[in-house]
Design goal:
Elements (H helix, E strand, L loop, with lengths): L1 E8 L3 H4 L4 H13 L3 E6 L6 E7 L4 H9 L1 H4 L3 E9 L5
Antiparallel strand pairs: 1-3, 1-4, 2-3
Length: about 90
C-alpha cells in the first residue's frame, strides 16, 4: 500500500528552507534507503507544497517522517495530511 504525505508550505519556502535543507534531505535518504519512502519532491509554479509517497501496511512511516522533519519542526510547513493511495498501475 502507498500513502501520500501532502505538505503546504509557508511563503518564501524556497529561501527559508536553506538552513534546514541538508537535515531534511538526510531524513529523506534514510527513509528512501530503508524502503519506507518511494519518492518525494516539492511542487513548483507556485512552490507552495510538497508530496512524499511512502510504502507500507499503514501510514506510520509518513507520521514518523513528519515527527522528525526539520521543515515541520521549524514552521516551514503550515499544514500536512496523509492519505492512502490506491495505485492501479505503475
Amino acid at each position: 500500500m502507498y500513502y501520500i504525505l501532502f505538505y503546504r508550505t509557508v511563503e518564501n519556502y524556497i529561501e527559508r528552507r536553506k538552513p534546514f535543507r541538508e537535515e531534511h534531505l538526510g531524513l529523506i535518504r534514510e527513509f528512501l534507503n530503508d524502503g519506507r519512502l518511494f519518492m518525494a519532491g516539492a511542487l513548483a509554479e507556485p512552490a507552495d507544497g510538497a508530496v512524499l509517497i511512502f510504502r507500507g501496511d499503514n501510514p506510520q512511516a509518513a507520521h514518523d517522517f513528519v515527527s522528525r522533519d526539520p521543515y515541520v519542526k521549524n514552521g516551514l510547513i503550515t499544514e500536512w495530511s496523509v492519505r492512502p493511495w490506491m495505485v492501479v498501475t505503475s
